[in-house]
Write a structure and sequence with these properties.
By secondary structure, this protein is mainly alpha-helical. It has one domain: Butyryl-CoA Dehydrogenase, subunit A, domain 3, CATH 1.20.140. Helices cover 80% and strands 0% of the residues. It has six helices and no strands. Helix 1 runs antiparallel to helix 2 and helix 5 runs antiparallel to helix 6. The longest helix is centred in the N-terminal third of the chain and has 40 residues. It is elongated. 29% of the residues are buried.
Length: 197
Amino acid sequence: MAFAFTFTKTLILLVSLSSLLLQTHAARGPRTVQARLYSLCKPTTNVGLCYRTILPEVLGLPRFNYYKALEVEMLVTQKQVEKTSKLISVLLARPGNSKDLGDSLQICKEQYGNIMDSMAEAKNQVAQRNVIEARFKFSSVVSYYESCNDSFTKGTSPIVEEAQGVYDLAGNCLDIMKAIQDRESRRRRGTGPVTSP
């Protein structure tokens, strides 16, 4: 009888400890993901935007993954590029545009097409975990953005807000690629963490 009571008491204690450990792990998990994401986003072009756009997609993951964060930011960037491209097409179709505005919008339409092509190539490289080549392909996104931006006379761009979103998100992607590249380089030299990015 005493043995059964002690066994039951021990079993209850083990179940309680297991439950407590699971709760602690569950509570600590999201904070760890948030802390690692903040660390990744801190040196990016737009820290707040990086954190806000990636967090909802990585919060439920069992562990933080740099490539997943990059894929999320690239997808958000793609959506912003598509939104800006649609706006350019709408503005270009308006009757009564001045010649200068029409020419600038036409340049932007071509540049944003180039941006989409570069992003598709970079996305393929990221899928293959070739961040060096992905960064090379993706760097042209900023060049194309600048070509569009420079086509407008100062203060006349009708896509300032949307284009700024493209610039910030693209900059974040490049910064995350650099962080992954640096991390992988440290690992190859044996001076960094051994966990996968």
